[in-house]
Amino acid sequence: VQLVESGGGLVQPGGSLRLSCTASGFTFSGHNMRWYRRPPGQEREFVAGISAGGTAGYRLGVKDRFTISRDDAKNAIYLQIIDLKPEDTALYYCNIGNSFGQGTQVTVSS
After folding, report:
1. 4-44, pLDDT tens digit by residue?
2. What is the C-alpha to C-alpha distance for residues 53 and 78, in angstroms, rounded to an integer?
C-alpha cells in the first residue's frame, strides 16, 4: 500500500485548500478511505471518511467546511476545506486500514 498526499500549504484564515491523496498497491475502488490530521502537540484525529460507495462521514464540527470525495478512476481521494481556521493547522494524512501516508502540512495563519 502506498498513499501520497499533496495540496497542503500556508493559508490565511478564511482561505481554502484542496488536499489530494493518490493510492496504489491495492484495489482502490473496493475500500473505504479516510483523512486524519495531527495538530501540533496533539494526537492524530479522524477528520473525514468515504465509503467504497461514496457515503461520507465527518468529524463533529467540520462537516460544514470539509468535503471528502473520491475518484476511483484516478485512485484518489480529496478533501476540500473552506473557511480555514487556525485550529485547522495540522499534518493531514490519508488512511486505509493501518496504512497512512507521509502527510501534507496545512498551516493557517495571518
Report:
1. 999 999 999 999 999 999 998 888 888 999 999 999 999 99
2. 15
